[in-house]
Amino acid sequence: MIRNAREGTEATSDRHENAIRTRNLNLWYGDFQALLDVDLQIKKGVVTAVIGPSGCGKSTLLRSVNRINERLGYVRITGGIEVLGHDVYEDGVSLPRLRKEVGMVFQRPNPLPISIRDNVLFSLDLHGTRDQGPGKGVKEEIVERCLRRVLLWDSVKDRLQAKATKLSLAEQQKLCIARLLPVKPSILLMDEPCSALDPKGTAAVEELIWELRGVYTILIVTHNMAQARRVSEECVFMLMGRIVEHSLTEDMFAAPKEKQTADYIEGRYG
Amino acid sequence: MANDEVASRAAVSPRTRPGRRADAARHVDKDRLTLDWYQDKIVQVVVFLGGISAIVFIIGIFLFITREGFSFVVEKLEITEFFTSIRWQPTSEHRPTYNILAMIAGTASVTGLAMVVAIPFSLGAAIYISEFARGKTREALKVLVELLAAIPSVVWGFIGLSLMNPLIIELFDVPVGLNVLNAGIILGLMAAPIMTSIAEDALKAVPDGYREAAEAMGATRWQVVVKVVLPAARNGLLAAVLLGVGRGFGETMAVLMATGHSINIPDSIFDSVRALTATIAAELGETAVGSDHYQALFTIGIFLFVVTFTINLLADLVVRGVRKG
Predict the structure, then answer these.
(1) Yes or no, beta carbons of A99 and B215 under 8 Å apart
(2) Residue B223: its chain A contacts at CB < 8 A?
């Protein structure tokens, strides 16, 4: 449905086609340049994987989309990033609003040390519940819907008041995805979401990512090429802060255009 | 060439075994006799003594003050009267009395007011240093807080006596400026730096992942502090406050100089009071060793020891609670 609708409007406007678009993006950590002239277009509703060896800038790219990079304090940027057609580095952009629209999942599951239920409701709490009708019933409904969406409801429904940090790592990571959903983001950034999980947990989270495809635009950074192959529809290969190749996942793994991509995929470095 | 080598190896090999044994023997000798070995042992003993000295001293001090006050507690002390009567008249000719309610009230009121002053200051400073200040500002503030903690208490007492006293008289139009208000403010300012340090440690111990998670969900920095960092650091902050209370109870010189040192249950913050600690400091030098008065002062010492010990223990347990959770 969603895809059909998108294809229909393809000709009319490029802005609505792309969820994220970077133009000439350069980024420095102090004196070190981590991103060089990154031009990237991420399509709406598609799962895009970013692959590349350690230190190639893939996490940096991800973290500059929701501007969480700026926590460090010594980051400098030129060029621009548009999220849903709006430049996020313009003056006067509201970070809370941006981050409500663009959720993020981290490498290590980082649920807050409060109950499972409160974790899910935390973002609602942050962004005010004025338009939500803060009735208790409504909240419980939201908790259930979001936990069901991440395939976690059945295993935690009897212990919603339990501390979230007591869950298994895979469950914590699912919860970290679930807590983004109440404020209805359109983009999910995932920074190696499975690297702290065991194979079973990884499979569960990958299943969930596949499940969310189409509804959310997902940009996932991964070290694991097999994972990129399993969960993504499009794939971006980065090397030394530059985008080397961006194509459909199946094309990239079957017939990479660039030699560097081929070498990386075949495991000659990285 | 190759043949020569093989030959020489063959020639050596029968001798290698005994040679190795000799090496091993020498190695054992080295373990036993060298300077390094003695040095190692000596350092071990010194470090061990250093480690247990804290325990030895605290037990020693407790035994000392208990011994000095013990016979008084057992033979002459009316426990209920001791704690419920305000009559402290050690130099009375007819019937000297030793009851400490007034001093408990004095210490409690001064400490209470000190916490009212110190808690907002120290928590505010800790939150600013840990969550908002960056780079040089942060380092400078941390050094300054440490410096503030190093000001001797008699200097604070001096400030109370010569600066605050006339100020309070003028501002509030009261006859005496040495009172609960004066001592409370002085003590609050004294306790604040230590409380700030401990509270800041507690805030720093909150994993950065929590802050990042909340910020990535769109929390403003203030929301991060209120909704994430403070709840997560709750126990550590409580411990900071408790240690501040312990400090307030134990402080002597500044309180002696700023309270007015009069036996009195305060009706308002403009009343002069007397603290438990200040009583000991002021009177112990004038008493005959072993007299009732002397022993009564030591009984106050036991009481203070027990109270501060309990408070510190409580603080410690609270911090341990944080680690478990």
Answers:
(1) yes
(2) 126
Query: Which range of residues forms the domain containing residue B40?
Result: 17-50
- Tokens coding B136: 């040089």
**pLDDT confidence band for A131 (50 / 70 / 90):** low
Of B7, B30, B50, the one marking the end of a domain is B50
User: Is residue A270 included in any domain, yes or no?
Assistant: no
Q: Please tell me the distance from the alpha carbon of residue B187 to that of residue B181, in angstroms, as a whole number.
A: 10
The reply to whether B132 and B237 lie within a common domain is yes
Contact A108 B209 (CB under 8 A): yes
Series of mean pLDDT values for 10-residue runs along chain B (325 residues): 46 48 54 79 94 93 89 86 89 88 94 96 96 92 94 94 95 93 95 94 94 93 94 92 92 92 91 94 91 92 92 88 57
Number of domains present in the structure of chain B: 2
B199 with B280, same domain: the answer is: yes
> Does A238 score more than 60 pLDDT?
yes
Of A99, A113, A114, which has the smallest distance from its Cβ to B216's Cβ? A99
Question: DSSP label at A74?
Answer: -
Task: Tell how strand A47-51 and strand A75-83 pair up.
Answer: unpaired
CB–CB contact B228 A112 (8 Å)? yes
pLDDT the model gives residue B71: 85
Single out the residue of B116, B126, B110, B118 nearest to residue B250, CA to CA: B110
Q: Which residue reads 């090429």 in tokens?
A: A225
Q: Enumerate the residues of chain A whose CB falls inside 8 A of the CB of residue B227.
A: 122, 125-126
What's the gap in Å between the CA of A269 and the closest CA on chain B?
Answer: 31
